[in-house]
Fold this sequence. Notes:
Layout: E1 2-6, H1 10-21, E2 25-29, H2 33-40, H3 51-61, E3 64-67, H4 70-74, E4 79-82, H5 97-106, E5 114-118, H6 126-135, E6 142-146, H7 156-161, E7 166-169, H8 173-183, E8 190-193, H9 195-226, H10 230-238, H11 259-272, H12 279-301, E9 309-313, H13 329-338, E10 342-346, E11 359-362, H14 365-369, E12 374-377, H15 382-385, E13 399-402, H16 409-415, E14 418-420
Parallel strand pairs: 1-2, 1-4, 2-3, 4-5, 5-6, 7-8, 9-10, 9-12, 10-11, 12-13, 13-14
Amino acid sequence: MNITVIGTGFVGVVSAAVYASFGHQVIGLDIDPAKIKSLQNGQVPFFEPNLKSLLVEQQATGNLTFTHLYPKAIQEAEIIIIAVGTPSAPDGQADLKFVKAAAESLAPHLQPDAIVAIKSTVPPGTLDIIAEIIAANTDVNFFTASLPEFLREGSAVHDTLHPDRVVIGATEDKVFARLEELHKPFNAPIVKTSPSSAQMSKYTANAYLATRITFINQIADLCEKNGADVQEVINAIGYDQRIGQHYWYPGFGYGGSCFPKDVSELAAYSRAVGEENNLFNKIHELNSKRATEMMTAFGEDVGGWAGKRVAVLGLSFKPNTDDMREAPSLTIIPYLSDQGAEIIGFDPKAKWPLQTKNFTQVEDLDEAIEDADVIMAVIEWPEVISYDYSEAKSDKKQFFIDSRNQFSPSTVKEWGFTYLGVGRKKEH
């Protein structure tokens, strides 16, 4: 098939490269010529495991090309996938300006019976808006569909090649059939829904996962009050098949490009349709203040932050990505700076984007933890959780903050540190 993917951000580049790997002729389209030139040279503007090699490989086969020209990208495309950004508007809802602009720009160049599918995260009803825009700018017959993505940064290539399911939202049988054919090589369950259900499924999935994180953080807070260990609680409840032991992450809260944005937008959408007193508004509120509350509590545990040398290990919002969006470090480091601490940061891929007093980023973990009063394991990069910290122990009292409960408290104590976890009994 001839496929065009509009938008060369995280979702667009990964999707274009993977579709090309199945033998389709794919064009990646972006209005930024500099970005297109970089991609043509095999340069990905962000870190994602295995993506660069796939990108270079598919361009070499001729299956994947990039352009900034709409006529070139659209005129022969059988399927056009819109994967542009949908930033949050001032009222909290998804801003559809880039989706609308893409629809208006592609419309004059459509071939008859082309399918325009939205992969961008958008609220229900968006497909009708896009169809109206396209119809006003073309005389040919066309179809629309929703193709929500469920990718995880850090494993996006694998997730795209091996999805748990492919959700197709459409109203015509011929559209379902065509998109099922496109996704047949993925060998995954095909879930056929209405467009609105497909769009809601993306918001629902992320809101549910964010709810689990927020829920277990609330349980962790109670555990710290009563002497229970949240990891033992997670193990105990996990044997219930309705609950499971997976995806329980007590810590600083959820971050990244999707969860904060999607929960916030779902909360704003719910308010817009008259459902103000719902769970999503509270989840967003609790997560927004989580990191500051934890840093205040840890500050009491370590005897105050002023004058302390603090090693912050992990700047990105999760391992295997350089994405800093809504990363806990963006709260932690300014907080420490305001409290008068000296901060040394380390991350294998991410670069600190702000000018921050008393902060230095170093390239080596050894250098980051040297003579630290407090070591904070913020993100579970392999380099962070596999490191032997026993060599970093000095004669002074030192604290080890395990913010994702990745370490054995007994091992950390054997190294000579005072262990501080999340939802775990504290030393006195």
